[in-house]
Amino acid sequence: MKAVRVHKYGGGPKDLVYEEDIMQPPHPKEGEVLVRVYATGVTPNEIVWIWEHPGVSLPLILGHEFSGLVEEVGPKVSNQMKGDAVYGLTDPLSLTRNGAEAEYVIAKESEIASKPQTVDHEYAAGVPMAGLTAWQALFDHAHLSSKDTILIHGAAGGVGSFAVQLARWSGAHVIGTASAYDFSFLEDLGVHDAIDYNNTRFEDRVHDVDVIFDTVGGKTLERSWKVLRRGGRLVSVTSQGIPTSYDKRQEYLKEKGDSFGVNATWFIVHSSREQLIRIGELIDSGQLRPVVDTILPLSQANKAYEGAKDIHKHGKIVLRVRTELE
Ligand SMILES: NC(=O)c1ccc[n+]([C@@H]2O[C@H](COP(=O)([O-])OP(=O)(O)OC[C@H]3O[C@@H](n4cnc5c(N)ncnc54)[C@H](OP(=O)(O)O)[C@@H]3O)[C@@H](O)[C@H]2O)c1
C-alpha cells in the first residue's frame, strides 16, 4: 500500500518518505477494525514531539486522525460493520503503532465513531485530533460553564477554531488571541472579542477571566497567569517553551498555578468514541464547523509538515489518501 514513513530517529519533515510498496496492516484483532483511509489530518508539531518519547519504533507511519470506510472488523466489534463511514483518532502516544498516513490503518473500536454525514472525508479527517483536544480542554479539564469568560490563545488555529466554537456553543463569553488577518474568520466562528497578538498585549485588554485555554505556550503562557481571576482555571496543551521534560509538564503547570491561586492543567488528548459521537452530532446539526485550510496529496506529506507556517492560515491541513470515487 502507499504510505508515508519516517525512518530516521530525530528526523524532520525532509526525512518523511512516500513509499508505494508498504505491507498492508494484518487482519484486525479483537476489538479492532481495519479502516480504508480516504483522508488524514496533520498535526505539524508531531514530527518534533515524537522524539521526546523513548521507544519509537522505526520506520513509523505518522498521523493519528483519519476518515474512511471500515474494510474489516475483528472479533467482538459490535458498533461498526464493514462498509461504515467512520472517523477517528488512534492513540497519539503509541509510538509503536503505525498511524493513518497510509491507505489502511488499524484502529480500536473505542477510537472511532460514525463519520459526520454532512461533511466529506477530507473535512471529517481534520476533526478528531483538534476537536477532541478542544472538547477535553474545555469540558473535562476547565469545566467551562455558560457563566464563564474564556480567553483562548491561538484561537484561529486547528485546535483554537474548535475551541472557539465549542466555547460559544456552551454559552460562555469568548475572547480569542490571533493575527488581525484572522479576525473576520473568528467572528464567523462566534468569538465575542478578538485581540491581535502582534500589536496588543492581551493583559492590557482582559482581566479576571475565569478560564484560559492556551495552545501557544512560551511567553504567552507566562503572561497569562495574571489575567486569571483567583480560583480561575488554565489549561495548556502545547510543549512550546514549557521549561521541563514531557513527564513533568503536568506537575510544573500545577505548581505554577498554585503559586498564582489558579488551577492549572497540561494534558495530552485521548481518543473517545463517545466524544466523537457528540462532536459528529454538533457538526451534523450545523453547530460546529470543521475548518480545513489546505488539502494536499499524501505524496506531499513533507510539505504539510515543513511548510506548515506558509501554507496554513487557519484551521487544519489535511492529506488526501484517495478520492471519494476510489
Ligand atoms: N497536548 C495535546 O494533546 C495536543 C493536541 C493537539 C495539538 N497540540 C498542540 O497544540 C498547539 C496548537 O496546535 P494547532 O494544531 O492548533 O496548531 P496551529 O493550527 O498551527 O495553530 C496555532 C495558532 O496559533 C497562532 N499563534 C501563533 N503565535 C501566537 C501568539 N503569540 N498568540 C496567539 N496566537 C498565536 C497561529 O496564528 P498565526 O497564523 O498568526 O501564526 C495559529 O493560528 C501545538 O503546539 C500542538 O502541538 C497538543
Secondary-structure topology with pairs:
Layout: E1 3-6, E2 16-19, E3 32-42, H1 46-49, E4 60-61, E5 65-73, E6 85-89, E7 104-108, E8 112-114, H2 121-125, H3 128-141, E9 149-153, H4 158-169, E10 173-178, H5 183-189, E11 193-196, H6 202-205, E12 209-214, H7 218-222, E13 228-236, H8 249-260, E14 263-266, H9 273-284, E15 292-297, H10 301-306, H11 308-311, E16 316-320
Parallel strand pairs: 9-10, 9-12, 10-11, 12-13, 13-14, 15-16
Antiparallel strand pairs: 1-2, 1-4, 3-5, 3-7, 3-16, 5-6, 6-8
Bound molecules: NADP nicotinamide-adenine-dinucleotide phosphate.
Residues 43, 45, 129-130, 133, 153-154, 156-160, 177-179, 197, 215-216, 220, 237-238, 240, 268-269, 314 line the site of NADP nicotinamide-adenine-dinucleotide phosphate.
Describe the structure.
With 326 residues, this protein is an alpha/beta fold. The protein folds into 2 domains: 156 residues, Alpha-Beta Complex (Quinone Oxidoreductase, Chain A, domain 1), CATH 3.90.180.10; 137 residues, 3-Layer(aba) Sandwich (Rossmann fold), CATH 3.40.50. It is built from 11 helices and 16 strands. The strands form 3 sheets. Strands 3, 5, 6, 7, 8, 15 and 16 form a 7-stranded mixed beta sheet that branches. Helix 8 links the parallel strand 13 and strand 14. The longest helix is centred in the middle third of the chain and has 14 residues. It is globular and about 55 Å long. The model has no long low-confidence stretch (mean pLDDT 94). The chain binds NADP nicotinamide-adenine-dinucleotide phosphate. NADP nicotinamide-adenine-dinucleotide phosphate (NAP) binds next to helix 3, helix 4 and strand 10. NADP nicotinamide-adenine-dinucleotide phosphate binds next to helix 3, helix 4 and strand 10.
